[in-house]
Write a structure and sequence with these properties.
Oligomer: heterodimer
Number of strands of chain A: 4
CATH class of chain A: Mainly Alpha
CATH topology of chain A: Formate dehydrogenase/DMSO reductase fold
CATH superfamily of chain A: Formate dehydrogenase/DMSO reductase domain
Mean pLDDT of chain B: 89
Number of strands of chain B: 6
Mean pLDDT of chain A: 89
Distance between the termini of chain B: 62 Å
Radius of gyration of chain A: 20 Å
Number of helices of chain B: 14
Largest sheet of chain A: 2 strands, antiparallel
Shape of chain B: globular
Strand order of the largest sheet of chain B: 1-2
Structural class of chain B: mainly alpha
Radius of gyration of chain B: 24 Å
Largest sheet of chain B: 2 strands, antiparallel
Chain lengths: 333, 477
């Protein structure tokens, strides 16, 4: 047999890509969700400017994830996409609208309010769809013989609506702490004010989801309660992050709320992964069941090892160039 | 009436891919054109080349941006509507499509920003290099996409094990029998598209007496290019047709409206192919010419559609008529290539109004040719998705219902209509505003996105208001 377990390497790469996407597109989607509630139009300009240089780079991770899944774990691609058919459409439609709104709002004057709505609406729909995907993932998918056999709206249940709303709140929290980091004055005050209520909402939803999950899914219940092991470290760390957000907002720290929110997301994400590992299409298929041929995984891996460092370098450079506060009237366009 | 998920999925894929194709077909040709302009600017130092390159780079930015947006949908279509196909062919298709994505990202990350925003920030040689790399990148993307498509037309280098294709030879799979012809035909088509759009727009400016010197030079360049490319495309197309005759004979039979396997096959100029009677209801043709073209012998025997069962035949009228429209567009392009040469003899090509008007209209001809050409090759292989190995009916997502497919079909139509009418409207604004450079600070040492390189306001009437800085309203703050 082959000396490397490529499926494991690919699981790591895809897992890394997903959390990169969630963290990075998360805050710019969050800014979109918060958009209609901003104090005034000048604040909206600043909000949009704060994410304008980086948002499309953030979305590259989504496209890369889609193509990478087809190449490395085709079963995930060919079960999740049919199962989430309507949700995928809403997600893509939302992303398209907000993407175009980014471009045209800066150039528009009289039609600007339309682009405002496209940006906020697109961000909200896309975020909700992503949250519902997470919920559907916890629920599992009805499959037979490596094919999805459930209905069109199986993914839409009270549980997934809740996770969708949770994702909205979570992304909004990433958005508000990003604004704390990147803005000042009245807009930053507003971001400080809304962060604590958003955090409370996130914790309530996460709490309900956590209590509900063992009822939705037997396997998770088994894993959580059969043995007391390291798995419990993750929610504890997530709660510590939540406390850190609360504390740093009260002390009006600039960067810590955003860092702690990222931590909250990372530990929740790891908790989800550990609860499900090694099942990648729950409840039936593991990463090894879902893998493509060894040669195919290897063929793409070689290219990826060359390009990913370049994308990471470019991404880091972009954030470095745009470091510091975004001020009113300082559009980068 | 029952909604057929297979038919609706085919319509949906045809719709999204036809829509998407418009943009890359243009940008692939335009990228190389810009690289040539940059090269001329670098070599001669004549500011006209720089003006032209700057202007067409702005157009490129808008079209490239729309291509990226419409392309996102494509990468999910295989999974949502064709999951059995995606699962079966993932070992080959997954890496190939991923490499296309990687190419595009690498290109965007490393060179597009320099091309769009770096003109005054990097040495001229580096800017030229960026232009060449962007052009090369678009061609590499074309390579991956056409390798994937050609493999579906003439599969090679794989074997079926447990319901999945396994690659036995990457070289054979990538460079499958129809790949070289398809790739050549498509790259030529892109270059022709670029040439005809640039000459059409230049003609429009010349008719309005705008930037005459630059537009005359651009038009002249394009006419030389077209003079070479249009006849060359006819030859490549002919070779591609012969290759198709070898590997997909019944596609050619549908293209020619040929039902009976026979010699002396006429080249039909007009016909109404009829599935019921398995013949043409009415036809006008040139005797023997199709045999002559396809077999290079008037006695050559060409396979007919009746050799295969009805349910294995493609929809003949679509293939037949799409092919004729494509060829008609090609011949029009050759005609304009010759007209350009004739009018050049005493330098009249850039001041002959009827010729310039004609060129304006010809700027959409390559798009029509490309779309109909794809209709021929895609519908012509029906009912196969992977020719001879997997049918479209086997490939469609099993859980997909007609209602779901209809919902997203209408949804994508609405989204595309809204988004791309805004995009096309904006593109028209960019053309209208024209070539003069606005002297403003662009913060251009910063990386940014394609569309923002266009620097043109969205609405009419505020061209000179410095309005691409709406975040800094005059008199405010």
């Amino acid at each position: 047999m082959h000396s490397f377990d490529l499926a494991l390497i690919w699981a790591f790469i895809i897992g890394f890509g997903v959390i990169m996407y969630v963290l990075m597109d998360g805050f710019d989607l969050g800014v979109g969700i918060l958009f209609p509630f901003a104090p005034d139009e000048a604040s909206r300009d600043v909000m949009m400017n704060s994410v304008a240089p980086v948002w499309d780079g953030n979305e590259t991770w989504l496209v890369l994830g889609g193509a990478g899944l087809l190449a490395a774990f085709p079963l995930v691609y060919t079960i999740l996409l049919p199962a989430l058919y309507i949700g995928v459409f809403l997600l893509l439609a939302g992303l398209i609208f907000r993407g175009v709104a980014f471009e045209f709002r800066f150039k528009a004057r009289t039609s600007r309010y339309l682009w405002n709505w496209a940006f906020a609406g697109g961000s909200t729909v896309a975020s909700f769809a992503q949250g519902a995907v997470v919920g559907a993932y916890i629920q599992g998918f009805e499959t037979a013989n490596k094919v999805y056999v459930g209905g069109a709206l199986d993914w839409l249940t009270p549980f997934t609506v809740l996770t969708g709303l949770g994702m909205l709140a979570g992304y909004a929290l990433l958005g508000s702490t990003w604004l704390i980091l990147k803005t000042e004055g009245e807009l930053q005050d507003w971001a400080y004010r809304i962060t604590t209520p958003l955090l409370a909402t996130v914790l309530v939803v996460f709490g309900i989801v956590s209590v509900w999950t063992p009822f939705v899914n037997d396997m998770v219940r088994e894993r959580w309660f059969s043995t007391i092991d390291v798995i419990w470290v993750l929610p504890v760390l997530a709660l510590l992050c939540a406390f850190q957000i609360f504390r740093s907002v009260r002390r009006r720290f600039n960067g810590m709320p955003f860092v702690a929110t990222m931590g909250l997301f990372i530990f929740t994400y790891l908790g989800l992964l550990v609860s499900r590992w090694p099942y990648v299409v729950p409840p039936n298929y593991t990463i090894w069941d879902a893998s493509s041929a060894y040669d195919s995984q290897l063929f793409l891996l070689l290219g990826l090892l060359f390009v990913i460092p370049i994308i990471l370098t470019y991404t880091a450079w972009t954030y470095w160039v745009f470091r510091g506060k975004v001020r009113a009237g300082e559009g980068y366009h | 009436m029952d909604l057929d998920p297979l038919l609706l999925s085919r319509i949906q894929f045809a719709f999204v891919v036809s829509f998407h194709a418009i943009f890359p077909v243009f940008t692939i040709g335009l990228a190389s054109f810009i690289a040539v302009l940059e090269g001329l600017a670098f070599k001669t130092g004549n500011p006209v080349w720089r003006t032209l390159s700057g202007f067409w780079t702005r157009v490129f930015a808008v079209v490239f941006g729309m291509g990226v947006v419409s392309g996102i949908v494509m990468s999910f279509q295989f999974g949502t509507n064709w999951s059995n196909f995606a699962q079966a062919s993932a070992n080959f298709l997954g890496p190939v499509l991923s490499y296309e994505v990687l190419t595009a990202f690498f290109l965007e990350a490393a060179f597009l920003g320099v091309l769009l925003f770096g003109r005054d920030k990097v040495p001229a040689g580096v800017h030229l290099l960026a232009a060449v790399m962007v052009a090369t990148g678009t061609l590499i993307s074309t390579f991956w996409i056409l390798a994937a498509n050609s493999w579906m037309q003439t599969p090679a280098g794989v074997e079926m094990q447990n319901g999945m294709f396994h690659v036995t030879s990457w070289a054979e799979a990538l460079f499958n029998p129809s790949f070289p012809y398809r790739f050549g035909h498509m790259v030529m088509a892109s270059f022709l598209t670029g040439s005809f759009v640039v000459s059409g727009v230049s003609a429009w400016y010349l008719l309005r007496n705008r930037e005459v010197e630059a537009n005359r030079k651009a038009l002249s360049m394009c006419l030389w290019l077209i003079l070479v490319l249009a006849p060359a495309q006819v030859l490549i197309g002919d070779a591609h047709g012969l290759n198709t005759l070898e590997h997909q004979p019944y596609k050619v039979a549908a293209m020619e409206g040929n039902w009976e396997t026979q010699s002396h096959v006429p080249l039909l100029l007009f016909a109404l192919p009829d599935r019921e009677s398995q013949s043409n209801l009415f036809e006008v043709g040139i005797p023997g010419l199709a045999s002559l073209i396809l077999k290079h012998d008037i006695n050559g025997v060409v396979p007919g559609l009746r050799d295969i069962p009805r349910d294995e035949q493609p929809v003949v009228p679509v293939v037949f008529w799409s092919f004729r429209i494509m060829v008609a567009m090609g011949l029009m392009m050759v005609l304009f290539a010759i007209l350009g040469l004739v009018l050049r003899r005493n330098g009249r090509y850039w001041k002959t109004p009827w010729f310039l008007q004609g060129l304006r209209f010809m700027s959409i001809a390559p798009f029509i040719a490309v779309e109909t050409g794809w209709f021929v090759t895609e519908t012509g292989r029906a009912p196969w998705l992977v020719y001879g190995m997997m049918t479209q009916a086997e490939a469609v997502t099993p859980s997909l219902t007609g209602a779901m497919a209809l919902f997203t079909l209408i949804g994508y139509m609405v989204v595309y209509a809204a988004v791309f009418s805004a995009g096309l409207y904006y593109l028209m604004r960019v053309l209208y505003v024209g070539m003069e450079e606005h002297e403003e600070d662009y913060d251009s040492d910063r990386p940014a996105r394609p569309l923002s390189a266009a620097h043109v306001p969205f609405e009419y009437g505020d061209d000179n208001a410095g309005s691409h800085h709406p975040s800094a309203p005059q008199g405010g703050n």
